[in-house]
């Protein structure tokens, strides 16, 4: 169906033409073809057809006259210069080359740009990395060859990027517990900076059965192995 949307007139008429060609025996008369087209109209497009139907010749044809008036009303075609400008302004962005090529081909088909201009416009629209690689290659003979080469280069760049990540796994840091450093002060290395344990801290260590030297449970200062090792190195 067609409701008079801007930019969709040609696609609608193209589908109608396909229907005529698929069933030529059903569409032998222009009046039948015109009735078929009007039957698919909706909204403002149907309002237009209804208003024009008061003229009997409008429904009888010929079809060429009906299509001319239909296009004048709904097909606001862009000028060749406007289409060419759109082609040159196309950019790949986050698309793959294949997706970008579909968009480019669709617009280029309605333009009058020559071979060289199409090659230049497509290359300019690609991302910088692809343009850099294409600069090292011999210029393809036509647009299709350029698209195929660009897809091949993009695939290779992705493979290299994936291989690089696999061969250089991220480094992970492991934590290792460090034993308390022995102090050379003798009896009480459990200090904050250079200050010995306060009376309150000493009482807490005694109450919890913690060593005054290393802070670990199960032994006292006099039997602390770390303290004895520290004295042995003095």
Features:
12 helices; single chain; 234 residues; Non-ribosomal Peptide Synthetase Peptidyl Carrier Protein, Chain A; mainly alpha; elongated; 3 domains
Give the SSE map.
Blueprint: H1 9-22, H2 30-39, H3 43-52, H4 56-60, H5 63-74, H6 80-89, H7 97-108, H8 115-125, H9 128-134, H10 143-167, H11 199-207, H12 225-232
Detailed description of the structure:
Residues 158-191 are annotated as: Disordered. This protein is mainly α and 234 residues long. The chain has 3 domains: 9-74; 80-163, Orthogonal Bundle (Non-ribosomal Peptide Synthetase Peptidyl Carrier Protein, Chain A), CATH 1.10.1200; 183-234, no CATH class. The protein has 12 helices and no strands. The longest helix has 25 residues, at 143-167. The model is unreliable at 179-187 and 191-195 (pLDDT under 50).
Describe, in short, the structure shown.
This protein is mostly helical.
Mind telling me the C-alpha Rg? 41 Å
Number of domains: 3
Q: What CATH architecture label of the largest domain applies?
A: Orthogonal Bundle
Low-pLDDT runs: 179-187, 191-195
